[in-house]
Design brief:
CATH architecture of the largest domain: 2-Layer Sandwich
Distance between the termini: 22 Å
CATH superfamily of the largest domain: Glutamine synthetase/guanido kinase, catalytic domain
Oligomer: single chain
Structural class: alpha+beta
Helix content: 40-55%
Shape: globular
Number of helices: 28
CATH topology of the largest domain: Creatine Kinase, Chain A, domain 2
Bound molecules: adenosine-5'-diphosphate, magnesium ion
Radius of gyration: 29 Å
């Protein structure tokens, strides 16, 4: 009985909560390990400080001399905090963050004059030996080098004893190799386009910032238990395991009291977040057992994306201290809720206005409606691209599999706003009569804030829902880097706002309409043209699938199918028109994501085959042998009558043999299917083969294994069971 499973169980169930005491109040801790305004003021010369501020606010270049000064101040600050190393911190397309640490320490060639050194050159640019990061064929091996370059808009921070400098990652030929570069460009595009539209309503607006507030869901599993499951270790999810007798049916976990081990983990996590300037605010249990959520106050999107990536790193590290493995996978356990990462998104002006929040006057509401309706139009036009932006092998378990939300992108706006749009749609063509104007302004637009006050009908099944003062993109996966979704969303809205501006201007200049009239006219046409994307009903229902098909909305349940939209003409045009990505960059990303998909399924297939053959079958045979011994014994005692007496055992022996054969044949067939898929040269075809030819075996093999789990004696089963993974606290 000394199997890994039982040792792990013993270890896990005897653990006490790891002690943790906050060192100070949150407001005191906040940002202490960030090179923020406060630190800059203290450690930079006035010139250097101004240089950084200009770079952050207006994107001005930082010259080499200035960089030297900034680096010097940054180093001084870091040394006061015991830092020994620095690294450029970036987000390659693998989904994880990357770092390469260098010591501050330097000496002369003969070992004399040891000193802590960090110059502008090292701050601004670094060359990671990055030939092993995915690049989708952009970097040929003979010039397999990219470089990282400082992004001053996201402040440097200290983690452990390392100064981390957020950077972009670009190839020497100038193409983006990371998530951040296109995101920054998309944020720029939406800033420009939205600022132009804002000028219709307020000439003082100079900058619009896209805001993001993510909600990170995750599971905690005891490290010992996680380590006893090769599937969790290798793929982040369970590939087999019979569902536990007690699941989430009772819903007693949701908003219940947080178990104390988890609570101490969260407290330490929150303290780390505070030090790093990540403004986390809420913590609670989620629907499934051992599932939790952490969410911050929203921030400027680039910073929020960095903070989410950083958070995921920090969570793993703090998790280790508390003997937890943090599972970010969208579906770690069959039969219990999966995890998502809702992306709450809006736009705010430098004059302090949330553009998706209705105001007090008809004018501010017309502004609200312009941004609100243009977002709907953008999603309608580019729903397929938006779906592609969240497509991963792991997110397929949610989007493609009757779980929240569906693979069909639609927009939920609530009853009240639906009414407002219907009234706006009735606006007459061309010039408005004075009565019409008054009616519109006072009775339709004027009343929006009041109607929104009781807009409480929140549709939990919608992938993209308006929630009072922001849109909530709910289909983003819990393991994703938010940048992918945010680049796409901000790009399509930027493009749409540009088009809107052109159309409104054409009516003003060409047809002599007043500004308000022109805006009303364009919005009316938009409302008529984008009804397809609006849906208020149950997103999981079959009826919606049929209805969506009639509306010709896309419904790609798998990543390989969904990803194609990334390289459609519409997508390529969009990204190049807005200078976000050129064709090479878009195509490279598409290839990388296909490869990523293929690799994930390939690994899952291998791991499943291994576990089924090396854990499940041997265990089943051992148990079967016990049964056989038993039957033999019965035969000895009872002679010819044994068949009657041993009937159940004999049936079991046969049943076990049936499942063993089932596993063996299907693992063999799956391996053959993998070989055929591997022989394909086209990335799209290979991903589709893995999806359609290899993946279907997972369920069949699992089915046999899970049946065996029920048949075989609990004490000899080597794999930690669902009830143990989910209910050990
Ligand atoms: P709930 O939806 O649970 O009622 P809130 O409405 O306060 O809670 O916000 C949920 C999430 O939305 C939070 O993570 C918050 O940071 C984010 N959020 C709120 N306002 C905005 C905004 N203007 N832009 C982006 N995210 C926002
Ligand atoms: Mg939410």
């Amino acid at each position: 009985m000394s199997t890994l499973r039982f040792r792990a169980l013993q270890e896990a169930s005897s653990r006490k909560p790891v002690k943790f005491e906050e060192t100070d109040r949150k407001s005191v801790l906040f940002g202490l390990n960030v090179f923020n305004q406060r630190a800059m003021k203290q450690f930079l010369t006035p010139d250097a400080y101004k240089g950084v501020q200009d770079a952050i606010q207006h994107g001005t270049k930082i010259d080499r001399k200035l960089a030297d000064y900034i680096a010097m101040g940054m180093k001084e600050w870091a040394l006061t905090k015991g830092v020994t190393h620095y690294t450029h911190w970036f987000q390659p397309l693998t989904g994880a963050t990357a770092e390469k640490h260098d010591a501050f320490f330097e000496t002369s060639y003969d070992g004399s004059d040891p000193l802590e050194k960090f110059g502008g050159g090292q701050l601004v640019q670094q060359e990671p030996d990055a030939s092993s990061f995915p690049n989708g064929g952009i970097r040929n091996t003979f010039e397999a080098r990219g470089y990282t370059a400082w992004d001053p808009t996201s402040p440097a921070f200290i983690f452990g004893t390392t100064l981390c400098i957020p950077t972009v990652f670009i190839s020497y030929t100038g193409e983006a190799l990371d998530y951040k570069t296109p995101l920054l460009r998309a944020l720029n595009a939406v800033d420009e386009a939205a600022t132009d539209v804002c000028k219709y309503f307020d000439k003082n607006v100079k900058k619009v910032t896209a805001t993001l507030g993510w909600e990170q869901e995750y599971f905690l599993v005891d490290t010992a238990l996680a380590n006893s499951r090769p599937d969790i270790l290798m793929t982040g999810r369970t590939l087999l395991g019979h569902t536990s007798a007690k699941g989430q049916q009772l819903e007693d976990h949701y908003f219940g009291s947080i178990p104390s081990r988890a609570l101490n983990f969260m407290r330490e996590l929150e303290q780390e977040c505070m030090l790093l300037g990540i403004p986390v605010k809420t913590r609670h249990n989620e629907v499934a057992p051992n599932q939790f959520e952490v969410a911050p106050i929203f921030e400027e999107t680039n910073l929020a994306v960095d903070h989410n990536s950083l958070l995921m790193d920090v969570m793993q590290k703090v998790g280790e201290r508390h003997d937890f493995k943090v599972l970010f996978h969208e579906k770690p356990f069959k039969g219990v809720n999966g995890s998502g990462k809702h992306n709450n998104w809006s736009m705010a002006t430098d004059t302090g206005v949330n553009l998706l929040s209705p105001g007090k006057t008809p004018m501010s509401n017309l502004q609200f409606l312009s941004f609100f309706i243009n977002t709907i139009v953008a999603v309608n036009k580019y729903e397929e691209l938006l779906r592609a932006s969240i497509a991963t092998a792991s997110n397929d378990h949610r989007l493609g599999a009757n779980e929240a939300p569906p693979a069909i992108i639609s927009v939920f706006i609530g009853q009240q706003l639906t009414k407002v749009l219907a009234e706006l749609e009735g606006v007459s063509d061309g010039k408005l009569s004075p009565e019409e104007k008054t009616d519109l302004k006072l009775n339709v637009v004027g009343k929006i804030p009041d109607v929104l006050l009781d807009n409480t009908d929140r549709n939990r099944t919608s992938p993209f829902a308006f929630t009072g003062n922001k849109f909530e993109f709910r289909a983003v996966g819990s393991s994703a880097n938010c940048a992918n979704a945010m680049t796409t969303l901000n790009a399509i809205v930027a493009k749409q706002l540009r088009d809107f501006k052109k159309e409104v201007d054409a009516l003003i200049d060409g047809k002599g309409l007043k500004k308000d009239e022109a805006i009303f006219n364009v919005l009316r046409e938009y409302i008529k043209g984008s009804k397809n994307i609006l849906f208020e009903g149950d997103g999981y229902s079959d009826a919606w699938e049929q209805e969506a098909a009639k509306r010709k909305l896309s419904n790609h349940k798998t990543t390989p199918k969904a990803l194609k939209a990334k390289v459609s003409k519409a997508a390529l045009d969009l990204f190049s028109e807005l200078n976000i990505m050129n064709h090479v960059e878009v195509e490279a990303r598409y290839e990388i994501e296909l490869e990523e998909y293929t690799k994930k399924i390939q690994i899952e297939g291998r791991v499943l085959g291994d576990i089924a053959r090396n854990h499940v079958i041997p265990t089943a045979i051992r148990y079967q042998n016990t049964l056989i011994e038993n039957v033999k014994g019965l035969k000895e005692i009872f002679g010819a009558d044994y068949e009657n007496i041993a009937r159940e055992q004999i049936a079991l022996i046969k049943e076990i043999s049936g499942h063993i054969a089932g596993i063996n044949t299907n693992v063999e067939q799956m391996t053959e299917a993998r070989k055929r898929a591997n022989a394909l040269t086209d990335a799209q075809a290979m991903a589709e083969a893995y999806c359609d030819e290899v993946k279907p075996y997972f369920e069949v093999i699992r089915e046999h294994c899970d049946k065996l789990e029920l048949l075989v004696d609990d004490e000899s089963w080597t794999l930690t069971k669902y009830r143990e993974l989910l209910f050990t606290r």
